[in-house]
């Protein structure tokens, strides 16, 4: 008898179909999610008696969703003012970036006012206690357990009834009701679903630590990010003390807020004014530096960009950038060479930001171009000058968003001259004691910066 041909396989995450079984979905790249079409029958749950009738939305108690402060101001800023009872927050980041240190500090500060349960699936209780003692995170109402079994963790939640629970991490827990090792797609889905259900039913605010893959995305099924209320991304340069926390998803607040932290040997501390970290501490102006103001969420940060241009001894000059998009830097160099007559085509060029900050928005293009032009001409720019604007392929300087907010922050830090695109301040006034010069293209911006540069002092003096 001929074997019955399978109608195909469908991904349980995104619905992608294929005629043959494969281990990884070709659409969402999830592993182990392909199931045979028609293998499982559709089951419909029987109707049950309603125990709690639906009520008009105006009669629902809004006090149950009032947020309370975690005690860490920068973390509250990212969450939208605090943490909401019954909410589930997923904190993701690379290994060793400081997730556990931050959440242990949050748990200890919150335990000063309400009971908190910290579940560690990666370290023993003694190891977590040693870190807590090092960073000063010991509290009487902070309860600690080291468990990897989901049923035991749920029992701890029922026993302690905490107001806040921290699970580090969701990929280390496993359920005995599901086949497979901890961390696979089925286990992560089951563990996350059970914890979210318990948090909603008991009104427990829950912080879940999530691992990331090599490309920086959160490990596990994509559904995990849809189930939780808030997704927080923790990132930063491993060789820098600066850590940035961004809200990728937030049901209770904006997603354009950024929290800045300083990671030290004594713990992690919030930075209310981090702008000074991104400026070099020098008293002598040197060629190849220009300041700009970036917007990290709603927060303006004054950042310095440094460039070095040196003669090349190889046929293909070197191009290196740190903290900037390399393709965008290459585009700016091409515009400089073609539209502004800056001879950078046969020179080694190195561009970097100060303090380990990463700049992704195009408003820093003009500052990058002026820093490279300053290095080519070997003439320093005034240390009180900054530049804002996006550079187009034809050499024009385009406006950036939030120019007035950026200039106010720069004026507070002592900058007196700003090069901005034409019409950038059409609806607002410049800050007092700041000269704002409007430029239309890259050539005029270089000419304006050159006319305000330091006198003919040799570089480095």
From TrEMBL:
Spans traversing the lipid bilayer: none
Annotated SUPFAM superfamilies = P-loop containing nucleoside triphosphate hydrolases, Ribosomal protein S5 domain 2-like
This protein's record includes keyword Metal-binding: yes
Instruction: Write out the residue ranges of the motif RadA KNRFG motif.
Output: 249-253
| Molecular function (Gene Ontology), one example | hydrolase activity
Q: What InterPro entries does the annotation carry?
A: AAA+_ATPase, DNA_repair_RadA, P-loop_NTPase, RecA_ATP-bd, Ribosomal_Su5_D2-typ_SF, Ribsml_uS5_D2-typ_fold_subgr, Rubredoxin_2
- One GO-annotated biological process of the protein: recombinational repair
Identify the residues that bind ATP: 93-100
Q: What are the record keywords, sorted?
A: ATP-binding, DNA damage, DNA repair, DNA-binding, Hydrolase, Metal-binding, Nucleotide-binding, Stress response, Zinc, Zinc-finger
The segments labelled Lon-protease-like in the record are: 348-461
Q: Where is this region: Disordered?
A: 440-461
Pfam families xrefs = AAA_25, ChlI, Zn_ribbon_LapB
Q: Compositionally biased, Low complexity: which spans?
A: 443-461
Q: Which domain of life is it from?
A: Bacteria
Which SMART domains did the record assign?
Answer: AAA
Q: Which PROSITE patterns match?
A: RECA_2 (PS50162)
Q: Which residues form a coiled coil?
A: none
Q: Where is the RecA family profile domain?
A: 64-212
Described by its record, this protein's role is as follows: DNA-dependent ATPase involved in processing of recombination intermediates, plays a role in repairing DNA breaks. Stimulates the branch migration of RecA-mediated strand transfer reactions, allowing the 3' invading strand to extend heteroduplex DNA faster. Binds ssDNA in the presence of ADP but not other nucleotides, has ATPase activity that is stimulated by ssDNA and various branched DNA structures, but inhibited by SSB. Does not have RecA's homology-searching function. Plays a role in repairing double-strand DNA breaks, probably involving stabilizing or processing branched DNA or blocked replication forks.
What UniProt notes about the protein's domains is: The middle region has homology to RecA with ATPase motifs including the RadA KNRFG motif, while the C-terminus is homologous to Lon protease.
Protein family:
Belongs to the RecA family. RadA subfamily.
Would you tell me the protein name for this molecule? DNA repair protein RadA
Task: Give the species.
Answer: Janibacter melonis
